[in-house]
Amino acid sequence: MNRLDMAAELIIGHEYELAIEMLQKAGRDPEAGFPGVTGSSALRVESVSAGIQNVALDPGSETCGFVRETKALYLLSLLYRLFDRYDDEKTVVDIGLTSNAADLLPYFAQRKHWLSLDMYNKTVPRQPLHMPRNPLKIPDPEDIKKMCFVTGGDTNYFPLMVEAVESIRATAAYKDCDVFIFDCGLTAEQKQYLLEKLNVKKVYDPGWDVDVPVTCQQDGKGQITYYQTPIGFKCMVARPHMDKHFPGYRYYMWIDADAWIQDERAIDLYLEYANTQGMGLSRHITFDTYDDHNCYFVLPVLTTENKAFLRGKAAVIVSAFCIDIESKIFDQWRENFYDNIAKQGFWWNTEEQTLGLTFHQRRLKYLVEHQNHAALVREGLPIVFGNDNVLHSSRSSQILGTIHMSSGKWYHYFPSQKRAQPIRTNEEYQYHMQQHGWANQREVCFKHNIEPAQLGMENRHLVCCRFRVWPWADKPEIKDILEREAKAIQGGTVCHA
Amino acid sequence: MSRLKVAAQLIQAQEYKTALDMLKRDDTSKESFYWRSLICRLFDWYDDEKKIIDAGIQKHRDFAYLQERLVWHKKPLFDKMVPRQPVIMPKDPITIPQQSTIDQLCFVTGGDSNYFTLIVECIESIRHTPTYKNCAVCVLDCGLTSEEKQYLIERLKVQSIKDPGWDVDCELFHRYSPSRDQTFTQPYKEFGGVKSMTSRLFMKKHFPGYRYYMWIDGDAWIQDERAIDQYLYWTQKQYCSGAIHCNGSIKNAGFLKPAIMDEAQKAVFGDKPTFASGVFCIDGDTPFFDEAAKVVTEITLKYGYGYALEECILNYLFYKHQFSHILPYECNYRFSPGLPIVVADDPVLRNPHNHQVIGILHLPSPQKEKFYCNTHNISGPLSHEDLQKHSQFSNQAMFNPDHPYDPSKFGISIRFRTWPWENKPLIKQLLKQEIGNV
């Protein structure tokens, strides 16, 4: 029996890891293997092949050996795909392309093309998560019909925006809701993609609802300076005017383009709060209250009277919120927004602070933050229990509803942290933050000049913090092909293929 | 302003409980009874609703709604319950089964009439999985009535129901009582329940034509189908798979005190981790079934049938073939760590120790009705001290018949069926319509 036959037998016995090692070992055999493919520990393979001497990839004719060698590369490519080992697969595909096996060349060419895509295009929407609801909180289908989602951004945010919309389309209850997008600098192709592929109802340039040619900022000395308002800031100005731009709905659910829905029960809550009190909004994960420790609140974004009113109250985050148009909250928000811009100028988060102001003027209740909404900067990386591919809050161990990537979006292909048990004590939490805090992971990348994507994606059980993950739906098909090929090898038909 | 109008405003603001208090003061109008009944149904307060219906029907005999509700209240608890909401969670991609594997899988369960409602729930839980809902389900009839069998075939599309007869021809059945430290022996064929123990080793003989045989006890049910993925994935690798026994190993188990198999056979699994035979999967294309049949025949000729012998034989063969992977406890959760927990508003049953979602729950006590009792609802991970308290709470709730927890009062039961949940949005709509009329 040679190595290819042994690998076939291992594949039929579903011992895929061992089959990889077997085929890799063939690669290290200078007489029979293929160059360049290196493997990890061969110890377990040794135990399998114990007693078998002079193993060669193929004992037969030169042509037959050649066909079998290419077949081995093919199997190895499939096996690497099964385990998401795409860096390893790339080496195999490159060798496969140098072969002259006509029947497999299209496969290797196709894989070469796929492997050359950027990471975003290689990843796919993650598997659905549909959890039981508290029966009292099951949303009324009539309310869902009156609801629309709104998001927006510029061309830099396009992949994130796609993922945000994909995550809406992946929900069970909200998948058919209308989705609107503020075009704050998207290309024509991007708009077309959103309309055609994701069935977005409308992509719309909101213009400038308020004329803010310059944006204020404060330098290190406390001096206020101005810069030309970037086109992407249209989104901020447009948010208080969602109901004007997209009339005809009762509930407007805003979701930042860099946020996505993991567990739709969070949307149930936003909707329920909007239904009962006019608005559903989360508390800010970063700051407990509006006070002098809050680096945004200390800026003169709001008037002195407004700041005095807000001081000491809970800070809110507006990356996801839902407003009932009948509550007239939009009107109140706009009033606060215009008033503060007129008196204080336009700042980076004027609309966020004025919505917080409106929220507290109405004495509303906020959603519990880490249960429903997580910004990853302060939360630390989400945790995953064992092989349970669901992102949980490291603080509460609860399933995260919406996940907001806040800053450094491109680093969020980091894997979450696997744990066997929940974090039970404050000390354990502090340790988690030190070891696995998001910022810490970023440091690792900077220090060692590692592509963050690499750091995350090398993990087989990829549970990255973005909505898209490595392809998963093709795994059963890959196993089918492997089984078929292995049986063909065992049946001796490979040489004659 | 009349009480109804005030109640209507409260309902409008979704202040249902306050509205109920307000309506209690109006004990005459038809609307008051109707609205109160709807609010009680919204919160699953069926005992309170029953009182409202009884009082209402005295005053409004012709009110069809009240009569309908009265009929509902007269049903047994089991018939009032409905299958719970599905749990669909992302899978480890490599364990996603191939369609060809699913097509060759058959679930087998069994029991007598006492287990009928549990068997129904077990099969309902299979039929509610997205991946395995169309798989063949076969039932070993160890004392079911003809109506029960008809129900299983017609309502739950059970493929085949068969009385397995006596797969093993032996005379004596031994059972060890730990409390009395004594072994009791009785004629083998007088104890009908033993049929389902023995015959699970002969599943392939009784229901030929499949490749993967997944045994699931009648009193177990599937919450998260990823457990079945795990069973299949590992059965493909090692002939047979099972989840770790509640004690880790059966070495010191009471059922091994009497001589039920050879010492040399016991030594094969020794104090290694062993799996429980309540849920397991066997690849029928391997020699496992043949070997099991041979071993059980030889052993019973020599010793008679000892309680849980099938479990010992499965583990003996497992280690004889030098397999090693045993599935985690969540794949056959037997309540030893305590009642499952429910964290905050997330009605999913989890292992209190590691917070993992439980795949298969296996009700351990003979008082299965008790398991309509509530889970332990907590707001976050339990501290180590709280885990101990949880264990005490669980033991009382499960095994003390005088425990104050009334099983019929809680929404999240540990059985597959729960109080009706799908009608809640409809009830809210009805309430909205009513207040619109006022």
Q: Gap between N and C termini of chain A, in Å?
A: 20 Å
Overall structural class of chain B, as computed from helix and strand content, comes to alpha/beta
Number of domains of chain A: 3
- Distance from first to last alpha carbon of chain B: 12 Å
The total of beta strands of chain A comes to 15
CATH architecture type of the largest domain in chain A? Alpha-Beta Complex
Strand order within the widest sheet of chain B?
4-3-2-7-10-9
Share in β-strands of chain A? 5-15%
Major beta-sheet overview of chain A: 6 strands, mixed
**Helicity range of the residues of chain A?**
40-55%
Percent of residues in helices of chain B comes to: 40-55%
Oligomer: heterodimer
The low-pLDDT segments of chain B are 406-411
Number of strands of chain B: 16
Q: Architecture of the largest domain in chain B, according to CATH?
A: Alpha-Beta Complex
- What is the third-level CATH name, the topology of the largest domain in chain B? Spore Coat Polysaccharide Biosynthesis Protein SpsA, Chain A
Greatest contact pair?
A: A-B, 54 and 50 residues
Q: Helix/strand-derived class of chain A? A: alpha/beta
Short description:
Chain A has helices at residues 3-12, 16-28, 43-48, 62-82, 86-98, 105-116, 119-122, 141-145, 158-169, 188-197, 234-238, 242-245, 265-277, 304-310, 329-344, 350-361, 369-372, 376-379, 426-436, 438-448, 452-457, 475-490; strands at residues 124-125, 147-153, 178-183, 202-204, 214-218, 224-228, 251-255, 259-261, 279-283, 316-324, 373-375, 383-385, 402-404, 417-419, 468-469. By secondary structure, chain A is α/β, with parallel strands linked by helices.
